[in-house]
Amino acid sequence: MIGVTAAASAGLYLKRGCIDLALAAPVILGVVVGATLGTRALVGARPAALRKVFVVVLLALGCQMIYHGVTGAFARG
Question: Are 56 and 33 within one domain?
Answer without folding.
Answer: no
